[in-house]
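Tokens for chain A. Residues wanted.
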């Protein structure tokens, strides 16, 4: 379908970002790969899953479920460049910052690896359109300009570490680029470093060492404070924060924590009390920071916050430098509100040589060493390498940070419906007559479960993908589905209908409606005038069960021919013979009718695409009033 006519199916919309060269209208004969990636959350084991459908297989392979260490939130995006895969060529991965040999070896087993360190912004932009994936640490800024320079090729950005504030997530989302990180491998290393700074600061280890190296013996000057019985406020109770809390409890400290998103039961399990921000900073003797840098946390430790703290408080930061107003901290140190600070991170890294904060006698500094253990560096490298390769292969990757999250339990149940959702979207949009602008789509989920027990975000994204990709040059995945729909002026409404039945299965059926359009197959219109199709899962395989007002039952694999006919003997044989003459294999056939000898719809699943002459012969059968060929 030409791009002009394809775009005419949508209402006028904002310009879209540069399309991916691998996301063309996508022939239905090519394999479609979806990869499922987990986001970071504080859990330990879940099921991983790969979804692959191919027109050459009798039934889509829906589940390959294995256990893995990760977190239970999962998201979906499109897999590696299909063109590269078809040619058998390897994808190219740019490693822009130092990665351990163990991680590089993992990458080299699958991809061409370009290790180019210390790139200027201009150099990075010049190379980025030549690669399929980019791996960075914290020093490389992956800005909107970088994504604009990708020309649609970049599929994955891997951040070797936890924080992703150096990656423009909004731009990544707009360009359909998945961002993954490595949040687990350096957790223990960062927690250990926080404890090291905590103990070292309390006992003036760094200052006493420097004093001795200067030839002095100052026992009285460097008298420290004990940790036993002191209150430690852990600000941010994620992976690292909770590990710090566990270790600090072993030192005999009383632990409180502040984290607006942490589950109270998880905190209680560690013996930690969750409190408000103000209560935490007012009551703590020591404050350890483990929060991400976001607009809401930027410089949250400022003059106002320091003024609320107990005089003589001690602060440890192994999270992000930007959460502290460094000038305000210097003032708090000077007036002794803050007795000491131990800092591993800074707003600017490396900080200026004349930094008053770094030079302050009551500050212990390390050069961002939180993850710098041999074990952690190797673990992070392997974790991010596996995450990026998982994405490029169309398999499970470890983490996804810029996609709607779907709990693993929900995903495992919805897995068979993912293919159904996309195929219903593809069918529905092909039923729209050219020149009709699609503005409104409604998805109805029929289920015997309570509405609150049904998470449909994944299915909505796949329906969006199915509707948009066949008629545009856009590359759609779970990362950017809502964004692209909004760009194109496409409103997708959802309705959940509770029906009688067994709650064993999450869904009985899924219905897709497109309103205010003309249909190239009139029988696909419901009584109220919308294009309406419905499908369900039978024996693990997507089936089309309704077209307009007609019930059918046809497996959604290969391609589909819909014929409106007068119900009479011999129709199945006549159409079957026409297809057989052209060596077109029929894999499924179903007839739905209003009554015997009245109007009926014949749905025929075919493995190959019939040529124009074959389709013309089908249309010339006298009893056939209307027909349409649809690619799946």
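Reply:
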């Amino acid at each position: 379908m030409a791009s002009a006519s394809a775009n005419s199916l949508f209402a006028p919309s904002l310009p879209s970002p540069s399309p991916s060269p691998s996301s063309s209208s996508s022939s239905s004969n090519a394999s479609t790969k979806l990869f499922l990636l987990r986001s970071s959350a504080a859990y330990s084991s879940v099921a991983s899953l790969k979804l692959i459908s191919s027109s050459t297989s009798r039934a889509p392979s829906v589940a390959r479920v294995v256990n893995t260490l990760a977190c239970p939130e999962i998201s979906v995006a499109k897999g590696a460049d299909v063109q590269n895969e078809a040619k058998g060529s390897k994808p190219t991965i740019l490693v822009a910052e130092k990665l351990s040999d163990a991680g590089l070896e993992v990458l080299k087993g699958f991809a061409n690896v370009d290790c180019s360190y210390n790139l200027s912004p201009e150099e990075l932009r010049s190379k980025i359109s030549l690669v399929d994936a980019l791996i960075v640490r914290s020093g490389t800024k992956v800005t909107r300009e970088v994504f604009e320079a990708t020309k649609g090729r970049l599929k994955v950005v891997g951040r070797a570490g936890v924080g992703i504030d150096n990656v423009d997530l909004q731009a990544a989302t707009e360009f359909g680029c998945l961002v993954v990180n490595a949040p687990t491998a350096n957790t223990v290393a960062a927690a250990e470093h926080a404890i090291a700074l905590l103990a070292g600061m309390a006992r003036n280890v760094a200052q006493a060492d420097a004093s001795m190296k200067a030839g002095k013996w100052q026992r009285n000057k460097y008298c420290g404070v004990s940790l036993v019985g002191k209150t430690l406020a852990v600000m941010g109770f994620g992976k690292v924060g909770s590990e710090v809390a566990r270790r600090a409890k072993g030192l005999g400290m009383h632990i409180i924590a502040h984290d607006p998103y942490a589950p109270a039961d998880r905190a209680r399990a560690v013996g930690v009390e969750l409190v408000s921000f103000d209560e935490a900073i007012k009551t703590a003797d020591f404050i350890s920071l483990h929060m991400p840098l976001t607009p809401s946390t930027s410089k949250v430790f400022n003059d106002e916050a320091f003024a609320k703290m107990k005089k003589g408080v001690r602060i440890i930061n192994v999270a992000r430098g930007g959460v502290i107003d460094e000038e305000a901290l210097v003032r708090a140190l000077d007036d002794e509100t803050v007795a000491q600070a131990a800092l591993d991170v800074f707003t600017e890294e490396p900080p200026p040589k004349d930094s008053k904060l770094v030079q302050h006698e009551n500050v212990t500094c390390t050069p961002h060493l939180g993850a710098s253990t041999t074990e952690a560096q190797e673990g992070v490298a392997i974790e991010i390498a596996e995450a990026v390769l998982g994405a490029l292969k169309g398999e499970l990757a470890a983490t996804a940070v810029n996609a709607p999250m779907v709990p693993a339990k929900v995903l495992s149940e919805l897995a068979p419906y993912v293919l159904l959702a996309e195929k219903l979207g593809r069918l529905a949009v092909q039923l729209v007559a050219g020149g009709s602008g699609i503005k409104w789509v409604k998805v109805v989920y029929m289920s015997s479960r309570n509405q609150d027990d049904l998470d449909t975000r994944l299915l909505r994204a796949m329906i969006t993908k199915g509707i948009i990709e066949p008629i545009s040059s856009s590359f759609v995945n779970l990362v950017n589905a809502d964004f692209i729909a909004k760009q194109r002026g496409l409103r997708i409404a959802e309705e959940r209908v509770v029906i009688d039945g067994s709650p064993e299965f999450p869904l009985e059926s899924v219905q897709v409606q497109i309103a205010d359009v003309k249909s190239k197959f009139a029988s696909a219109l419901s009584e109220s005038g919308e294009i309406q199709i419905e499908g369900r899962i039978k024996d693990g395989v997507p089936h089309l069960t309704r077209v307009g007002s007609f019930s059918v039952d046809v497996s959604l694999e290969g391609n589909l021919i819909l014929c409106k006919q007068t119900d009479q003997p011999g129709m199945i044989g006549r159409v079957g013979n026409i297809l057989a003459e052209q060596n077109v294999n029929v894999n499924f056939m179903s007839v739905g009718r209003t009554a015997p000898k009245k109007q009926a719809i014949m749905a025929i699943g075919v493995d190959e695409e019939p040529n124009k002459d074959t389709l013309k012969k089908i249309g010339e059968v006298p009893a056939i009033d209307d027909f349409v060929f649809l690619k799946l």
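The CA atoms of residues 43 and 71 lie 5 Å apart. Residues 1-8, 11-87 have pLDDT under 50 and may be disordered.
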